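Q: Trace token order:
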Amino acid sequence: MDKLIFGPKYKNASEVRSMDNIDQNEHILAIAYQHPFALIIMFVAAFISFIVAMLIIGLLLPTVFGSTTAYAVVAFFASVSIVILCLIIAVATFVYRQSRLTVTDRNVIQVLQQGIYNRKVSQISLANVEDVTSHQKGFFANLFNFGTVKIETAGEQANFVFSYCPDPNKVSKIILDAKDDFLISTGQAGSYRNSLKPMHYEYPEEDKLLNKVMVTEMDFPYQS
């Protein structure tokens, strides 16, 4: 599954609509899943821990048992550890892949799966989005193009922070553009980029009178 998916390319949109309570007349603009870089780190750490544990067991057991018995015990522990490790990795991958940031033409929905039975779903209207910032820190974040997207909200609602977001600059632009389009379509105020208008300076009454006198003197110069 892609890390960053746009609405027209998403084949299981009905599943996301059902899980995130998205209306049928609401268009999905993008769905961002967390970058798999964190999973890769977890896989590497688990593999290194497994190898180190097997080496320690293999070195210590022969001193307690005979070599034949030690090898049998190591083989047994290795088999059990591999099964447990695969189960842990499978569950962790499933939990990690459930977190996502969905952008529609009306709302932004953030799903944070923090455990098998711990799931937090937050939703904010585009009208309440104050600002969106993206941050990429570190060599690997810039190399693999992932980072953190922060959505600042209006009122008392907590800000959205989506870590390991793929192409965070593009996701931020999609949200800001969706916000501007939403405000234009609904006729609401609040979009800074769309509310900029040419400035017209209103002269005070004294300045208007002075300008009128100066124009009159230029049109009718004094004649001796």
